[in-house]
Amino acid sequence: MIAINNAQLLRLAWPEIIVVATALIVMAADFLFLHRFSTHVRFSLAAGLGVLGCAGAIIRILFASEIANIFDGVLISNPLTHLVQIAVLVLTIFTLLLSVDSAFTQHVGEFVLLLLVATTGMMFLAGTQDLLVIFISLELLSLSLYILVAFNKSSAQSWEAALKYFLFGGMSAAFLLFGFSLLYGLSNSTSLPLIAAAIHGPALNPLLVIAIVTTAIGFGFKIAAAPFHFWAPDVYQVAPAPSAAFIASGSKVASFFLFFQVMALGFAGAEGTAVLPNLVRGWVPVLALMATVSMLLGNLVAIRQSSLRRLLAYSAIAHAGYMLLAIVVHTQQSLDALLYYVVTYALATLGAFAVIAVVEQQKGDDQLSNFNGLCRQSPVLSFCLAVFILSLAGIPPLAGFFAKFYLFVTVLNATPGSMGLLWLVVLAIAMSAVSLYYYLRVLKRVYVTPPAVGVAAIRTPLLSQVILIVLAAAVLLLGCAPQLLLRWIEAAVRVSGL
Fold it and tell me: How many Cβ atoms from other residues are within 10 Å of residue 1's Cβ?
């Protein structure tokens, strides 16, 4: 039986094996052959190999119809894990293509390798329900991201942000590991469903309360939720554009899906409630508080930002608060809403960073003043930025509008006959209105404020234009026809049984 399970384990891990093998091939090719070419050629070839590897992994996932659960959740294969892994791989492909026109490093092979290794970590996160594999995969992802932030060796600020990211990441890993160790001690298992069966009881064990808090702290850092967001503004602002885009998109998809699984499966029976006025102790009120602080702090501080990257960082904190509402509700419908929200958010954010990358190459930085009159300098660039910004703001008919609408309706439907969670929805809608102000400030710069005298037109590389148009079209299409994605998500969630 063990031999059979090991063979099945290897077969189920083929997509991850393909990505790792691609990373090693890219590293070897760059070291042996590509180093003699220009940086642009090296990035083009390395990114091309990376895209082929990710595409191969996607094809393998699409043709792998096997539904399996190996060793009590060490590795899981079902339509839901496949969907999340494909989303991560697609976002990685866009990030690789975005890096082609970059020139922030000469270590091209190492950069692509780390990007693919981080992707492998996210794929394992999506396909496991075991605490040990979760922690190892999180550290594989985190260590790769720390280095990706510091990849611009000419920027001391990049190194400083990476060090801050690393220090806070180490602290969050300690909290998470402590919480996991308590769960193991309480249940004698590392499998999330078995842990839930062991901790279920009429009253919360004091050690379980500590495990809930420490686990929430650990994951709060990973998703940049307040008050564990301190690393995000600096990382978003000074990391190389492809690295920042990857952190803001792909890692969010994997982290939120994992967070939902850990809380809904591992802490089942210890939920409590955030319904007013009858709060009950458990992990739900803890996450409701985290969501409240994130929405308030993220939106209010974003108003004061003069850097578009930092504005997107505080916007990400606010969006983390919105997405936490889906975990607070923890139903199948809320998981549908969460996955639709985080995927469409990732597409819009990735597109916004693609625009920032082009503007930075032409003008030096991402200050809002550099976007003055962008519509006259590059109509395509300005239109795509408007699509991404308005989607993040939740304006119809873009994907961000339906994502917020569906999420808020799901939260209200979670307590039929009661409006106990209405306070969370009202707060979220109010903060969405606040966010509209600072998003429109960006568009005012783009379409109303005239550019400085003598500013030349912005030259957008052809590949960047194609990426931007594809991302903008995806955001618009998923807003007008959300069932294209939502139908797939709903079917996958029902089959998984979450």
Answer: 5
Q: DSSP characters for 293-314?
A: HHHHHHHHHHTT--BHHHHHHH
Contacts of 159 (CB under 8 A, 6+ apart): 150, 153
- SS3 annotation, 91-144: HHHHHHHHHHHCCCCCCHHHHHHHHHHHHHHHHHHHCCCEHHHHHHHHHHHHHH
Domain boundaries, the chain: 2-496
Question: Residue 430: pLDDT band by 50, 70, 90 thresholds?
Answer: very high
Distances (CA, A) of 340 to 160, 190, 238, 291, 346: 34, 29, 29, 18, 10
Residue reference for tokens 């982290």: 255
User: Could you tell me the two tokens for 28?
Assistant: 């070897």
Locate 98 and state its tokens.
């975005």
Note if the pTM is more than 0.90: yes
**pLDDT, position 2:** 46
Rounded Cα distance between 471 and 386, Å, is: 12
pLDDT tens, position by position, 436-452: 999 999 999 999 988 87
Looking at per-residue confidence, does 84 or 421 come out higher?
Answer: 84
